[in-house]
Design goal:
By secondary structure, the chain is an all-alpha fold. It is built from three helices and no strands.
Length: 92
């Protein structure tokens, strides 16, 4: 049976592709030092729609209260892990 891919139906929030794109947009905002409001800019929304029509860009509130803080926490934990590993190897 041939499976047809629906390129117009929006992905649900639990789709792994949504998480990957949310993480990518978060890195874009962080590394470019952009305001959260960039996710509401018509040109940005058009870009995302053309790149992946099934992805719904979260609100700036969602990025400011959830996605960016999570990215920060993940980075902090990564740095802590590196420091812990260096301390363990230095004491050996």
């Amino acid at each position: 049976m041939v499976q047809v891919i629906n390129l117009t139906k929006a992905w649900v929030k639990t789709n792994p592709n949504v998480k990957a794109l949310n993480d990518t947009v978060s890195r874009f905002i962080i590394q470019g030092c952009y305001a959260y409001s960039i996710v509401q800019e018509p040109a940005f929304l058009e870009l995302m729609k053309k790149a992946e029509p099934r992805y719904i860009v979260p609100s700036r509130k969602s990025f400011s209260q959830y996605h960016i803080p999570n990215a920060f926490e993940k980075s902090v934990n990564h740095v802590k892990s590196i420091i812990d590993n260096e301390c363990k190897s230095a004491s050996s």
